[in-house]
Each structure stands twice: as C-alpha cells, then as structure tokens.
Write a structure and sequence with these properties.
14 helices; 0% strand
C-alpha cells in the first residue's frame, strides 16, 4: 500500500512539472535573455536556495527528532523538505500534496501519529515564520521612513494600511500561540463539522478518529511546552531562512540599481510574498507572484520592469528546485 502511494505521489509530481512547463508564461527566447542577463548569479541563486532548504530541513529535524523513537537521518529530512515543497508548489491551494507525502514517508520511521503531529507542527512553524517576517517588515518600513523618508513614504493611507496589517498579523500569531499550547486539530475538525458542505464528512471523521486526533494535539502541545528551546530554534531557523532568501532579490536587482540595499530587498520580498500568498489557490501562485513583485518593487522606487525580470528569474529557480524535489523522491526511496 505504501509503495503504491509513493508511486502515485511521484507520478503526480512528474505530471505537475510537465503541466507547469507547458503553461510557463514566457517564451524560450525571453528565458534565454533573462538567464543571459543574470549570468553567473543564476547558479549562485540555485545554490543559495540549497542552503535555505538546509535551514528548513534543520528546522524540520528539530521537530521530528525529539529524542523519542527512531531517529530520522538528516539526508532523509532534507529530501522530505525539498520534495514536500516541490509538491506544494505545483498543487492548487498549497499544502495539499507535500504534507500528506511527508506524513506517509515519516510514518515508516516514527509511526503515523507522531508523523502527523510533526508535519502539522512544522507546517504551522513555516506559516508562522511568514507572519513574523511580514510583521517585522512593517516595523522595518516605518523605521526606514524616518531614516530615508524620501524613499519610503508614510502618508495617512499608508499608515492606515500598515496599522491594519500589523493588527491582523498580531492576531494571527496569537491564534498560532494558542494552537501550539493546546493543539488545534480537534478544534479545526469541530469547526468543519459546522460548515454545511463538509459537515457530514467532518462529523463522521472526527467520530471515527477522535482518539487519534486528540493524540496528535497532545503531541503538538508536548513539542511546544516540553521542548521549548528546540521549538524556538526551529522557528528562528524558519525566520532566518526568510531573511536570507531576500539575498536573491538583492543580487538580481542590484545588478541594475547599485543603490538598491538589502533592506529594500527585505521589503520587496515581504510585500511580494504577502500579495502572492493572497492567491494561494493557484499552483505556483501563477500571475500573483509576478504582479506582487512588480507592485512591491514600485513601492520602494524600483522600476516595475526590474521587478518583473527578478520575478521571472525567481520563477525559473523555483522550477529548477521543483524538478529536483520530484526527482529525489525516487532517489530517497531507494536509499531507505
């Protein structure tokens, strides 16, 4: 059964990559032109993201290897990290392909319940780091306004927008903190059981699997309350990975704008990722990623053309790592 599901996930990944390449919104002449302009920096960016995925894998490993049960090898954690993100990139709604795949693979090492709780907690950690990054970027924008006010405008409407965003981010982080302390899986299914379209399915599922769901919640709470330092390091690594990923924009836009600073790249990254995540239902966030990049770049006085160019290079990097992630699904299986 497990081998069959492994094959299904792999074939799904291959099919999704093919569809992704066929629907790529750029002709090959444009791709060659962009890669020629990027030059040596494109392979550097590929390697940069390899380092970022290592940080993600370290964060994931801190959650999985808690000192109880079988230890998952670092190479396997890295493979699951990259392959899981590859499946998420090409799956509509996100988190619909990578997380079940990670749970399936990990269950052979640590059991189904622990695998489920570890994957859910890591997904929460990854999403939580996004909100921490966005909130920190709002603070950075305000600080930079007073340092270089001519470049970072802060009128009434911008102040109102940043204020609303800050309140929303703080509320979301508060909800995450409750979920970490008490677990949230049972509560989520309880909410689903009140929604008309999925009420019957959710009620039946929670009735059949209540004990398993409660155990997952207990393990999530245990990871947060009993292993505080690994938990904090895991979140710090995810947040640091967000910051380091901004080097990609700094390197690319800096080719054309020597005055473009690393602080600018953080703001561009933050607001473009926020915009693209608002259309999470699209595979690889098609369209929103490029549009968000252009809008964010304009917000820090970067010509929109540079923003679109950078978005295309980032998209090509994403394609490369998606292909790598799908390919190592089979390599990782042979090494188990």
């Amino acid at each position: 059964m497990k081998r069959r599901w492994d094959t299904i996930f792999f074939l799904f990944g291959v099919a999704a990559v093919v569809v992704m390449l066929l629907s790529f919104r750029a002709d090959w002449n444009q791709v060659r032109s962009v890669l020629s302009q990027a030059g040596i920096w494109f392979p550097v960016i590929i390697l940069l993201w390899g380092f970022i995925y290592i940080m993600n894998a370290c964060s994931f490993g801190l959650i999985i290897n808690d000192g109880t049960g079988r230890r998952v090898p670092p190479a396997k954690v890295f493979q699951l990290t990259v392959s899981g993100y590859a499946l998420n990139y090409v799956t509509p709604l996100g988190l619909m392909g990578g997380e079940p795949y990670r749970i399936l693979e990990l269950s052979g090492y640590v059991g189904g319940r622990k695998a489920t709780s570890a994957v859910i907690l890591y997904s929460m950690m990854h999403i939580c780091s996004h909100f921490c990054f966005w909130l920190a970027s709002v603070v950075l924008y305000v600080v930079l306004h007073f340092v270089v006010g001519g470049r970072y405008g802060l009128d009434m409407w911008m102040g109102l927008l940043l204020g609303v965003m800050s309140v929303v981010f703080v509320l979301v982080l508060w909800v995450f903190s409750l979920g970490y302390r008490k677990g949230f899986v049972v509560r989520v299914f309880g909410m689903l059981s009140r929604i008309p379209l999925v009420r019957r399915w959710a009620s039946a599922y929670i009735e059949r699997h209540r004990e398993d769901l409660e155990e997952v919640d207990r393990q999530i709470a245990f990871l947060h309350t009993r292993r505080r330092w690994p938990f904090r390091w895991s979140l710090l690594l995810e947040f640091a990975a967000r910051v380091i990923s901004c080097l990609e924009y700094w390197l690319l836009i800096g080719l054309f704008m020597p005055g473009f600073t690393f602080w600018d790249s953080i703001l561009v990254m933050a607001f473009s990722s926020l915009f693209s995540n608002l259309i999470f239902f699209s595979p690889m966030q098609m369209g929103g990623y490029e549009g968000g990049m252009a809008l964010a770049a304009g917000g820090v006085q970067v010509p929109g053309a540079y923003g679109l160019y950078t978005a295309l290079v980032a998209r090509l990097r994403q394609v490369v790592w998606t292909v790598i992630g799908v390919l190592i699904m089979k390599i990782g299986k042979r090494n188990d």
